[in-house]
Specification:
The structure holds three protein chains of three kinds.
Chain A: E1 3-14, E2 17-28, E3 32-36, H1 43-50, E4 58-63, E5 66-68, H2 73-78, E6 81-84, H3 96-102, H4 116-126, H5 142-155, E7 160-164, H6 172-187, E8 191-195, H7 199-205, E9 208-213, E10 216-222, H8 228-236, E11 254-264, E12 270-280, E13 284-288, H9 295-302, E14 308-315, E15 318-319, H10 325-331, E16 333-337, H11 353-357, H12 372-386, H13 402-415, E17 420-424, H14 432-447, E18 451-455, H15 459-465, E19 468-473, E20 476-482, H16 488-495, H17 519-523
Parallel strand pairs in A: 3-8, 3-9, 6-7, 7-8, 13-18, 13-19, 16-17, 17-18
Antiparallel strand pairs in A: 1-2, 1-4, 4-5, 9-10, 11-12, 11-14, 14-15, 19-20
Helix pairs in contact in A: 8-16, 12-13, 13-14
Chain B: H1 2-31, H2 39-57, H3 60-84, H4 89-113, H5 144-148, H6 153-171, H7 173-183, H8 185-190, H9 195-220, H10 235-245, H11 250-276, H12 278-281, H13 289-309
Helix pairs in contact in B: 1-6, 1-9, 1-10, 1-11, 2-3, 2-4, 2-9, 2-10, 3-4, 3-9, 6-7, 6-11, 10-13, 11-13
Chain C: E1 4-8, H1 14-38, H2 43-51, H3 61-87, H4 95-112, H5 118-147, H6 151-171, E2 200-203, E3 206-209, H7 210-228, H8 230-240, H9 242-247, H10 252-278, H11 289-299, H12 304-325, H13 334-355, E4 356-360, H14 361-366
Antiparallel strand pairs in C: 1-4, 2-3
Classes of the chains: A alpha/beta, B mainly alpha, C mainly alpha.
Amino acid sequence: MEFAIELKGISKSFGPVAANKNINLSLAKGEILALLGENGSGKTTLMNMLSGIYMPDSGSIFIDGKKVEINSPEDSSKLGIGMVHQHFKLVEKFTALENIRIGIRNEGRLVHGADVRKKIEDTAAKFGFEIDLDKKVANMAVSEKQTLEILKVLCYGAKIIILDEPTAVLTVQEIDRLFAVLRKMREDGHSIIIITHKLNEVMAISDRVAILRHGEYISTVVTKETDEKTLTELMVGRKISLNIDRPIMEKTHPLLEIRDLTVKNDEGAVAIDHINFYIRGGEMLGVAGIAGSGQKELCEAIAGLRKIEEGQMIHEGESIVGMSPKKILEHGISMSFIPEDRLGMGLAPSLSITDNMILKNYNEAKGIFVDRKSARAEAQKVIDRLEVITPSTETPVRRLSGGNVQKVLLGREIKSGPNVLVTAYPVRGLDINSSYTIYNILNEEKKKGVGILFVGEDLDVMLELCDKIMVICHGRLQGVVNSDHTTKEEIGLMMTGTINIVNKEGKTDGIAKDSAFTDEEGKA
Amino acid sequence: MLDVFTLFLFNIIVYNIPLLYGTTGEIMIEKSGSLNLGVEGTMAIGAVVGYLAGAKTDSLLVACLVSFIASGLVGALFSFLTVTLQANQNVTGLTITTFGVAFYYFIGNALSNSAGGWPKLNGTAFDMQSQPIHIPFISDIPFVGKALFSHGILVYVGILIAVLMWFYFNKTVPGLKLRAIGENPAAADSLGVNVTLYKYTHIIIGSGIMGLGGLYMGLNLGGAFEGSNCWINGYGWISIALVIFANWSPAKALLGTLIFGFFNTLRVQNAALAYAFPDALGWLTKIPSHFFSALPFIITLIVLIISSLTSKGRSGEPQAIGRNYYREDR
Amino acid sequence: MRKYHLVRRADAQFKRTLIYYAIGILVSLTIGAVILAALGINPFEYYGRMFSIGLIGNRYGYKSIEGLLKIFVPLLITSLALSLSFKMRFWNIGGEGEFLIGAIAASIVAFNCSGLPNFVTVLLMCLAAMISSGIIGIAVAALKVKFNTNETLMTLMLNYIMLYVIRYLGETKAEWNFFLEEESERPIFGTFPETAFMGGIPIGPFKLLWSVIFAVLLTVIVYVYLKYTKQGYEISVVGDSSATAKYAGMSVGKIVLRTMFISSALIGLAAAFTVSAAGTISDTITNDVGWTGIIVAWLSKLSIPAVFVTAVLISILQYGCQAAATQYPAIDINYADLLQGLILFSVLVADFAANFRIVRKEDAKNA
C-alpha cells in the first residue's frame, strides 16, 4: 500500500496532560479513513499537528514517504494538506469567492483577475458542489459554510483532506450530499481523514477505521470486516476497575425534575430536544454523551443562564423556569461547568482565591463591605480540605495549576450547601490523585442528601461513581440506565445513537413515579 | 456674484484636503484591525519635520518624502508597541498624540528662539494656492474650472490616494488579505497570511499618508509657526470622526471630506455669503460659528449611534478593531 | 521559521516590575537630556530646576506649592475616576468632555447664586457638576450596554462637542450670556462672586484649599471602595470576565451604568474644584487632564496608591517645566508632554519585558 501520510511515534503534551502518546497512524492514498474515539481521546490534537497549529513533542511525520516538518498552517498547505476545522475559519463579511481568494497563490494580484472565478467554479462543478460564490458568509446556512470550507481546501490543491466532525452540524440529507462529495473526491485520488463519532456514518463512508482511546493509538481495522459493536468495544475499551467508592444512600423525593425540556444553542439549532429526567436527594445521576450533545446547554438552562424553548423545570415543587441565575442559586441549585479552556466560566481568573470564594454570596454580608475575613477563612478551609496547592489564599486563580483551579471551583460550589449540585467535567485534565479527591468530595455531598448531576467524559468513572446514567445523543434522550445493570458497551452504543431504550420494556424513562408534577402538568 | 460661490467651492477643497489624507491614512490602519488615536500627533510630526526638510532643500518632493518617513516612523512605533508588545491601542495612540503635538511645539519654539529663527520658505515652490496645476480645457471651464480643477499638486495626490486605496481594498488580493485581518485575524492566519507583517506595513503606510496631510496643512498656512496654534488644529480628530462617517470606505471619505469641508467653509465664509445674498442667506450669520465647528463631531456621534442600532452586517467597521492578535490565544 | 518564542512569565514579581519601570523612566529622562544638550542646555541643571519646581532659593516658595497643587488636584481626581471605568474595561476617554460639562454646570451655579453663603455655593457647584457629568456618563454607558455602541469613539466625539460648547459660551456676547464679563467690550469669561471661591486653611501666606484635602481623602475613599466594598468587588469581576459576572447572578448592565455614573461624576467634581479654585472658567480649564489622566491611570496599572504617586510625579513634571521656563525660555511646557510621552512608551516596553520572556524554540520544548 502506498501511503499519503504516515505518523510514527507522535507524542504531544499540554503541561502535565498527555494528549497524544506515541501514536502510529497511516493514511493510504485514495482512501477514506475514519478516525474514531471518545471525546478527549486526542483526535483533534493529532490532526492539528498535521495542519500546522501544534507541533509534536516527539515523533515524525511522513508525507508521500518523505519525512517533513510542519511548522505553520502555510507549511501544511504547501504539503497539500487541507483541514476543515470544526469551528469554521471564515470572514463573515466576505463573499464565498473572497474567502477562497485569500489563500490562492500565484494567480496575480487582482481579486477577480486571471480566471480565478472560472477555476473555482470548475472545481465546484467537478465535485458537485452547489454554491453561490457571491453570497456573503454572514447570510449562509451552516451547511453552505461547510461546503465553502471544503471547496476552499480543494481550490488550494490539497490532496490530503482532514474533516473534523463535519457531520455534527448537518441534517441527514446534507450528510448524504457530503458523503457523495467525499466519494467523488476519493475517486479523484484524494486521501481523506474524517473525524466522527457516529458509527453508522463510519460504516457508510470509510474504507478503514483508526481508533484512539485516551490519547493512545488502539488499532486500525478495515471497515468491511468489522461492525458497530466491535468498533464500540475498541473505542470505549474493556471495563477497567478504578475502585471509586459509591456509597448507597436512602434516596429521597425527586429534588429536581425536568420535563420535556427543549433548549437551543448559540447558533439557534436545537441542542436539547424534549428531555425528561429527575434527580433525587442522595443520588448521583451521570450524563453520558459524545462531546457537544447538548451538555453545556443543559447545564446553562438549569442554572438560568440560557432561555428555554419549551418544557418545565421543577425544583422542590416550584418551577424555576424564567428565574434569574441569582434566584436559582438562592433556591439551592449550584452549577459548575469546566469548559475546555478550564477558566471560561465560573471563576474570575485575575482575582484571588478568596475573592472567587464569595463570587456567589458576596451580597449576603451586611452593610456595604465585602466580608473578606470569613471569605479568607472559607478559602483556607477549601484549601485544607481539598488539598489545593497554592502559595496563599490571596493568589490569583490564574496562577494555579488546572487541578487546583477545579478544586477551588468545586470547593466554592459545595460550601454554600446546595441541595442540587450540577457539575460538568469536574475532573477534566486532572491527574489521578486530584480526580479521586474530587470524587470523594462529591460522595461526601451525596451522603449529605444532595442530588448530583454529574456530566462526565470517562465511562469507566461514571459506571463506578454514579448511581444511574442518563445517555444523550444529539440532544435526545437515549435512555436512563442503572449503573449496576448495564455495560460499557451498551452505553457506548446509546451514545452513538445505535440503540435507544427510552420507553422500552414498559418503563417511562425520566419520569419519577412520585413526581411533583400533577397529571395535567405532565400532559401539558 | 459668482465669485463668492467659486471661492466657496475652491476653499472647500483647498482647506479640507488634509482631512482626506488623515482619513484615508486612518482607514488603512483601521482596516488592519488597529485603532490608532494618534492621528493628530502623527500629522503634527510629519508636518513639522517635512516642513523643515523642505525649507532646507527648497524641494517639495523632499519635504513630502521626509514627512512621509517621519510619520511612518511614528507608525512603526505604534506597530511595535501594539502588535509586537501587545500594548493597549487606545493608550498608545493617545500618547502618540500628546507626544507628537508636544514635539511640534517644542521644535517650533526651540527654533523660533534660536539664532537663525524659524526657517522661512523661499520662493513659491511651496505655495499651494498660487501654483495650481493647469489642466488644459478642464481648468478653463468657467466657474467650475477654477473651483475644482486648478489646485496645487497635493490636492490631486490626496484624491489619487483615496482612489488608489479604494481600488487596493476592493480589487486586489493584498487588500483582500488586509481586510480579512481586520475582520478575523485567526482566519487570515490559518490561510498563511503573515498577520504581523501586514499590520506593520499598513500602519506605517497609513501613518505616512497622515504625515503628508500634516505637511499640506503647514504649507497651506504659509508655514508660519505660531506658539499657541498648531497647524493641525484638531484636523486629526476630525479625521477619526470622518472614518466613521465614511463607514471605513476611502471613496466615501472623499465625499465626507467635501461635506465636512462644506460646513467648515460655511463657518469661515458665512459672513461673505450673507453679505452677497442678504435676502436668501442672511440668516447664516445668526448661526454661531462654533456650531459649524462642532458639527462634524455631532454628525459622527449620531452616525455612530444609529449604525449600532441597525444591523451590523452592512457596517464597514472591521470586526476585530481595537483588539490585539496573539496566535496562541486561539 | 520562528526560532524564538515569547512566553508569558508565570510569576510577575512586583520587585522586577518596579526595577524595569525605573529603568524605563531613566531611559526616557536620558533621551530628554540628549534633546536638552542638543539645544545647548545643561540637562543636569535643567532637571535640577524642574524637579525642585522652583522651590530652591525662592522667597515665594509657597506659590510654587500652590501652583503645583492647582495642577495636581484635578489630575488626581480625574485619574482616579478613569481608573474606575478602566478597571471595568470600559474605555471612557471622554474625560475632557465630562470635565467641561462639570465646569459649565458649576459655573452656572457660581454666576447665579451670589446671595448664598460660601460653603453652600461651593457645595451646590459640586453637586451640579457631578450630576450633569454623571448623567452624560450614564447616557454613554446605556448606549454601550443596550446597543454595544463603541464607547471609545462616543466619548471621543463628546470631548470635541463640549469644547465648542464652552468656546461658544466664551465668545458670544449676548443678553442671556451670564458667563461673560459685563464691562468688557471683548467677550471674556467673568470672575465668580467671592462666595463661589474655594475656601481653605491659611498656613502663613499659604492657603491649603479644602479641595486639596478632599482630593487626598477621595484617594482613600476610592481605594477603599474598589478594594473593600461590594460594589468595588462587582467592578473587578465585571472587568475580569463579564461571563463570570452573569453566571454569579450579577446584573452587569446595572453595574456598568452605576460605575460610569460615579466615574463621570467624579470628573465633574474635579471640574467644580478647579473652577472654584480658579474663580473663573475658560476653554483651557481642563489643562488636558482628560488625556493626561488616561496616561496616569495606565502608568499606574490602575492601582490606586500608584495613581496617587504617579499623579504627584506627572504634576511635578508639568509644573516643574513651567517653573523652569522662567530660566530657560527656549524650553516650554511642551517639554513636559514630550517627556510624558517618552516615559509612557518606555514603560510600555518595560511592562512587556517584566511580563514576557524570550526563549528559543528548543528550550520551549524542553521547558
